[in-house]
Amino acid sequence: MNAQTSINPASVLAADPDWWRGAVIYQIYPRSYQDSNGDGIGDLPGITSRLDHIASLGVDAIWISPFFTSPMKDYGYDVSDYCDVDPMFGTLGDFDALVARAHDLGLRVMIDMVLSHSSDQHPWFVESRASRDNPKADWYVWADPQPDGTPPNNWLSIFGGPAWHWDARREQYYLHNFLVSQPDLNFHCDAVQDALLDATRFWLERGVDGFRLDTINFYIHDKELRSNPALPKDQRNSNIAPSVNPYNHQEHLYSKNQPENLEFLARFRALLDEYPAKTAVGEVGDAQRGLEILGEYTAGNTGVHMCYAFEFLAKDPLNAARVAEVFDKVDDVAADGWACWAFSNHDVVRHVSRWNLSDAALRLYTTMMMCLRGSVCIYQGEELGLPEADIAFEDLQDPYGIEFWPEFKGRDGCRTPMVWDKGNTYGGFTEARPWLPVSLEHAELAVSAQEANPDALVHHYRRAIALRRAHAALSRGSHDRVQATGNVVQFTRAAEGEEIFCAFNLGDTPAEITLPAGAWEQLGGDLGSADVAATVGTLTLAAWQPCLARRA
């Protein structure tokens, strides 16, 4: 394990109910992290065997994407049993062992709950579709056709085409915001909410520390099933769906984002509050109102603790002006809430490729992320600087990519196996043929190669995370207005009597900055921060250089 690792005893984990505030959370896509049994697919024992690597980064928690029983039409985001582990990934005993080992290493464990929809193979749906008068008949969103036989309204699926599918058994349509095989649960039914809260309690009793809530703003639909209005072309963007997807042509006024969702989140929060030091982060999928919804869902003590929107997961380059614009918006609509920032995850092109970042730029973005107000998610392999893998059409697994190929190649390019050993045929991930090919480009960036190189990116991540954890001003502090001047974004963080000035030159040419009045001392010298010791007034930042300074 890296010498810089600071491991907290497990007893500390339950002590701080606000541990999530400013936390760094490491996302694991279990199919692709480590295979322990030679079937080419990652699993829970594999994750457990690699927890030392994650702990060595200095992160606070892991978030594991779904491992529940599933037919895997959407690779685990189609759940057929919320309270069991799919045999592909192991057993409940394997999960318990993972939690115990993580806690021993000072890592909290968050799991991915998919509450808005289930698999069509879930026993609940099998019963619901059997007739119109069975005990679970209203557990899903069913509706009669219009007089001409067409769907009840114009709602669209984010995976393409209508959001309604005809079912001959009931002679009705059912709603699916995602795949046809992912019917939407009916949150207007109290029994559904109760059942999902029971499933959540099941995992709380097994010792999980929190939840990532998939598609949190999709839970509740308009009860009157009103059609969505068209969205003017100049208001469309591709933040949550590719531009070739007609989903972007609607203002999703009625198919999601309903005010009743706050009532369910209050119930969910009350359940979490029964247990010490638990948390939840919600994924807000909305291209127009993401930050506003983030503010609504995280304000006060009756919603989730934090949410992330897609502003920093977007395709457009993240320049200084955009960073300032996003934080101005957050200050306006979510001043009492809490954001969780990410540059990459399992649904978007890895940010190294998405923004075409050089090594120097990648390091600076990493440093900046660790200085932003909010919590942080980093995605497996991000600490290695893995670019998006190029997947041939015949190797694609993602139904989203298959549907919109070649204009949109889907999500497989960011889901390829983690690379551990440069000299291994499959990067140390497996001894068998993996479910997705291992990129040869990735193999050169394997963990073993980077650990042996003191200048490698993985060490930069450790140093940046350590800086964040060492200063309350960076992890939990307030900030003044985030400002952009040319390529430079700057702000000041403060907490517990400490004040830290942060400036980042997000450009490939030098830029001048003016330090705030007073005496300052350098922080982050090992991150390339400019030396302010002899500076009075102005300071020149080199291309892709930060300035981190603490008030003396």
From TrEMBL:
Keyword Iron: no
Keyword Ion transport: no
Source organism, top-level taxon: Bacteria
Short name of any one Pfam family annotated for the protein: Alpha-amylase
Gene3D superfamilies, alphabetized: Glycosidases, Golgi alpha-mannosidase II, Oligo-1,6-glucosidase, Domain 2
Name of protein: Alpha-amylase family glycosyl hydrolase
An example Gene Ontology molecular-function term: hydrolase activity
Similarity remark: Belongs to the glycosyl hydrolase 13 family.
All copies of domain Glycosyl hydrolase family 13 catalytic, residue ranges: 27-415
Keyword entries, A-Z: Hydrolase, Plasmid
